[in-house]
Amino acid sequence: MTFAQATAVYPGSFDPLHLGHVDIVRRAVGVFPRVIVAVLANTEKQALLPFPERVRIIQETFADTPQVEVTSFSGLLVDFMRQSGARVMIRGMRAVSDFEYEFQLALMNRRLWPLVETVFLTPNEEFIYLSSRVIKEIWALGGDVSSFVSEPVLRALLALRRGRTVTPAE
Ligand code: PNS
C-alpha cells in the first residue's frame, strides 16, 4: 500500500485543538486520501474542554474538509488503528524538545503493532511555539487566545468563560 491509498490517523488529546494541529491536519490531507483525527477519551489530565464536546468542536473545525473524519478512541491507539484499517500514524514535530517523547511513542507503538508506521509532519513555522498546554495557561490567566485557535474552539472557550457549555455555531 502506498501513501496515496492509505488512511492516516492523527491522534491526540487536543485540549484544546490549536492552529498548529489544524495546520498538521491540512498537510496530512495533502498527502493521504483519508485522515482520521482520533481524540483520546477519558484522559486523566485535567481537561479544559469537556468530552465529548471537544470532539464536536473539532468536527466543526474540519466540517469543510470531507477527507477528514473526527472520532474518539479509548484504550490502545494501535488497537483503534487496527480496527480502523489504518497503518499510518501522523504526529506533529515542532522542535528537538518534542523528539524524545515522539521517538518513544513511535517505537513503542511499533513494538505493540509492527505494521504501524509513524509519519512526522512539521507545522508552518508561525505555529512552532504553539502548544495546548501554553494556550490553557494563557486562557486560565485571562489572556487572549483568539489568534491561536479555530473559530469553533474560540467560541467554546468564550462560552466556558461565561460559565456555560456551547451549542453548535451559537
Ligand atoms: O497529543 P498528545 O496528548 O501528546 O497525544 C498522546 C496520545 C493520545 C497519542 C497517546 O497518549 C496515546 O496514544 N494514548 C493512547 C494509549 C496508548 O496507546 N498508549 C501507548 C502509547 S506508547
Number of strands: 5
Q: Give the CATH superfamily.
A: HUPs
Give the overall shape, derived from the CA principal axes.
Answer: globular
What is the distance, rounded to the nearest whole angstrom, between the alpha carbons of the first and last residues?
A: 43 Å
CATH topology: Rossmann fold
DSSP helix fraction: 25-40%
The assigned CATH architecture is 3-Layer(aba) Sandwich
What is the count of helical runs?
6
Query: Beta-sheet strand percentage?
Result: 15-25%
Q: Return the domain count.
A: 1
Tell me the major beta sheet: 5 strands, parallel
Radius of gyration: 16 Å
Assign the structural class, choosing from mainly alpha, mainly beta, alpha/beta, alpha+beta, or little secondary structure: alpha/beta
Average pLDDT value?
92
Can you list the ligands bound to this structure? 4'-phosphopantetheine
Give the low-pLDDT segments: none
> Order of SSEs, N→C?
EHEHEHEHEHH
In CATH's first tier, which class applies? Alpha Beta
Strand order of the largest sheet: 3-2-1-4-5
Describe the protein in words.
- The protein has 170 residues and is an alpha/beta fold.
- The chain has one domain (3-161): HUPs (Rossmann fold), CATH 3.40.50.
- Helices cover 38% and strands 17% of the residues.
- The protein is built from 6 helices and 5 strands.
- It has helices at 19-29, 53-61, 77-84, 96-112, 132-140, 151-161; strands spanning 7-12, 34-40, 68-73, 88-92, 117-121.
- A 5-stranded parallel beta sheet has the order 3-2-1-4-5, sandwiched between helices.
- The model has no long low-confidence stretch (mean pLDDT 92).
- Bound molecules: 4'-phosphopantetheine (PNS).
- 4'-phosphopantetheine (PNS) is lined by residues 11-13, 40, 76-77, 105, 108-109.
